[in-house]
Amino acid sequence: MQRITVAKGDGIGPEIMDAALRVMKAANARIEWDEIEIGEQVYLSGNSSGISADSWKKIRENKIFFKAPITTPRGGGYKSLNVTLRKTLGLYANIRPCKSFSPFIATKHPEMDVVVIRENEEDLYAGIEHRQTDEVVQCLKLITRPGCEKIIRYAFEYARLYRRKKVSCFVKDNIMKHTDGLFHEVFKEIAAEYPDIESDNWIIDIGAARLADTPEIFDVIVTPNLYGDIISDITAQISGSVGLAGTANIGASCAMFEAIHGSAPPIAGQNVANPSGLIRAGVMMLHHIGQQDVAETIKNAWSCVIEEGIHTEDIYREGVSKQLVGTREFADAIIERLGRKPRQLKVTEYVKGVTMNIPDYQRRKRADKRLQGVDIFVDWEGSNPDELAEKLQRLDGKIKLSMITNRGVKVWPHGFEETFCTDHWRCRYEVLEGEESVANNCIPELLAQAVEEKIDVIKTENLYTFDGNRGYSLGQGQ
Ligand code: NAD
């Protein structure tokens, strides 16, 4: 018996959660639950994150969280509960299967059956943003080796467990050679450990275009956070079944399962909501906790209901659907069909008794790291980079000004006057010719001199090589 935490949420949440729990109990799911309150009332009671300390305690105790949608009150000052849960509980993988149920649910892509596995904690979502000058703000894109290893291994383990054939990596490493480059490099390393699973790599723009046009060529997709956020919504939309999809957020110890839709306040309390998204999230949860037998039974009964045309209002279509039902009756129809297998839709058969093997991250031997110089970022109102270079060359000493870029484009030496410049200048100081590396104290000395010369340094980034490989980008135009 597995103890889980359940939150019925807001809007249609309580109705669809009751339906999902009823189906699970009828299918003999070996679960018991503690119920917690989250969402609108908790926010309005003055708790800005929508969850109380007691609820946190239950979620952490039980580890498995089955969550109905919540309503975030209008107005500022309320933190996204989902983002808080993902980050605090270390839920590093977001899994969103998107499959067509043609001809029973209308879609332009009857063959699609894609699972998007999105990295959930890093990338631009680390939320590290700064305004640096009058004209420029920045957001830090963080990609880490442990983060890449965990999510990519998860994708291959998922493929093996769910008998998937291929894992595709979506990145933009032709532009972001270091961040997306690391994700791609780790993908290649891990793919080599799974010779039974095909793998390929796509540049995100053309990959997303093909995904929207020909989704049937993809199977499992693994991708960093921002790309995953966007393409998982595209895939859900084009499968024709936004209201039917469930999603899982998985961490090393905790996991959370929910429907992808929101709390739909206008239809709340009317017994018209489709509980499928949450029921399918429940199927993912049962699979995750090792109850593949129960998960399979519910999924097959659900497929029977869909193909028999027993539909809630949101998916009801004249000529295809046979019976219009409410939330409760839809759940009853699943319960009546437990034990049956669909005739037209694919029968679900899960591998049983096998779990994923995601080993703890093993830190590798540290690389030989050598300081080669520093990029100092300067707030300067002028427009002629030669003038700035003249000021900056006064700081030359153990390291020497080698380049100035503006928004990544080289403007000194030999810049083009056509290049548009803002007040945010990256000024690179590098090791003198013939020297192998520079001492750390060079940088504070350089900064102290910059203060004396009234140069407004807004941030610095050290330049290193790692085992002789350059760990920083060059300026465009070089
Ligand atoms: P929504 O998903 O609630 O509704 C979008 C449309 O889909 C509406 O027309 C709604 O009636 C319909 N719909 C959604 N689920 C349905 C279902 N199961 N059956 C039938 N029809 C369904 O999105 P929204 O209107 O943008 O957001 C409403 C509230 O939900 C907001 O407060 C938002 O913050 C919240 N929300 C919560 C979550 C979550 O808890 N994970 C996710 C998204 C939105």
Describe the 3D structure.
- The chain is an alpha/beta fold and 478 residues long.
- 31% of the residues lie in helices and 23% in strands.
- It is built from 13 helices and 20 strands.
- The strands form four sheets. The protein has a ten-stranded mixed β-sheet with strand order 2-1-3-12-11-4-5-10-8-9, sandwiched between helices. The protein has a six-stranded antiparallel β-sheet with strand order 17-16-18-15-19-20, with helices on both faces.
- A hairpin with a 2-residue loop joins strand 16 and strand 17.
- Helix 5 (145-161) packs parallel to helix 6, helix 9 runs antiparallel to helix 10 (292-307) and helix 10 (292-307) packs across helix 11 (327-336).
- The structure holds nicotinamide-adenine-dinucleotide.
- Nicotinamide-adenine-dinucleotide binds at residues 12, 69-72, 82, 243, 258, 261-267, 273-274, 277, 314.
Spans where pLDDT lies below 50 across 5 or more residues: none
Radius of gyration: 27 Å
Q: Which range does the strand content fall in?
A: 15-25%
Fourth-level CATH superfamily of the domain at 108-239:
Isopropylmalate Dehydrogenase
* Helix/strand structural class: alpha/beta
- DSSP, total strands: 20
* Termini Cα gap: 63 Å
CATH architectural category of the domain at 108-239: 3-Layer(aba) Sandwich
